[in-house]
Design goal:
By secondary structure, the protein is mostly helical. The chain has a single domain, classed as Alpha Horseshoe (Serine Threonine Protein Phosphatase 5, Tetratricopeptide repeat), CATH 1.25.40.20. It is built from ten helices and no strands.
Length: 179
C-alpha cells in the first residue's frame, strides 16, 4: 500500500494533479519520498517545480517537503524551476527560503541555470533576492559568462554599471569625508 501511495505522489507531483496531491498528503504520505525509478532520484517537490506546478509546490512545502534536497546531480527544486523557466514556481521557492546559492555537481547555481537558459525574469528575481553573482562553477564560469541571450547580458551590464556607480559615489564620499 505504501509503495502505491509513493508512486501516486510522484505521479501527481509530476503531472500537476493538485487534488491527488491533497488526498495523498491528508493520508500522511511521506512527501520526501524519492523517485527511485529515475537514476536522478527526483523528489515530488522537484518534479512539481520543473513542471511549474506552483500550487503543488506550495502544498508540498506546507506538508514538510525538504526545500533544499539535492538529487544525484546536485539539483534542487529551485534549480529545476530556474532551468525550465518556471518563474512563478521559482518565486514561490525563493519566498519559502530556498538556498539561492546551492551548487549542483558541476558547481552551478540556480542563477547560473536561469542565465544559461535565458530566463530573464528568474535571473532578476534571484538577484533581487540576494543570489550571488560572484560564484564560479567548476569550469570557472560565473552567471555573467553563462548569459544565454542579449537581454540577460544587457541586464547584467546595466546592473554592473549601477554597482560601479554606487562604488564610485561611495569612494568620492569617503574622499570628501577624509579631507
Amino acid at each position: 500500500m505504501k509503495q502505491l501511495f509513493n508512486e501516486k505522489l510522484i505521479s501527481c507531483a509530476e503531472n500537476g494533479d493538485l487534488e491527488g496531491i491533497r488526498k495523498i498528503i491528508t493520508s500522511n504520505a511521506d512527501v520526501n519520498i524519492k523517485d527511485f525509478s529515475s537514476i536522478y532520484n527526483y523528489s515530488p517537490l522537484m518534479l512539481a517545480a520543473r513542471g511549474g506546478h506552483t500550487q503543488i509546490v506550495i502544498e508540498l512545502l506546507a506538508a514538510g517537503a525538504e526545500i533544499n534536497y539535492k538529487n544525484t546531480q546536485g539539483y534542487t527544486a529551485l534549480m529545476e524551476a530556474s532551468w525550465f523557466g518556471k518563474a512563478d514556481t521559482a518565486m514561490a521557492l525563493i519566498q519559502a527560503g530556498a538556498d539561492l546559492d546551492a551548487k549542483n555537481t558541476d558547481g552551478s547555481t540556480s542563477l547560473m541555470e536561469a542565465a544559461k537558459m535565458g530566463h530573464l525574469a528568474i535571473v532578476k528575481d534571484l538577484i533581487e533576492a540576494g543570489a550571488s553573482t560572484k560564484i564560479k562553477n567548476k569550469k570557472g564560469d560565473t552567471c555573467f559568462d553563462l548569459a544565454a541571450n542579449a537581454g540577460i547580458r544587457e541586464y547584467f551590464s546595466t546592473m554592473l554599471k549601477k554597482r560601479a556607480g554606487i562604488k564610485l559615489v561611495f569612494k568620492n564620499f569617503i574622499r570628501k569625508f577624509k579631507k
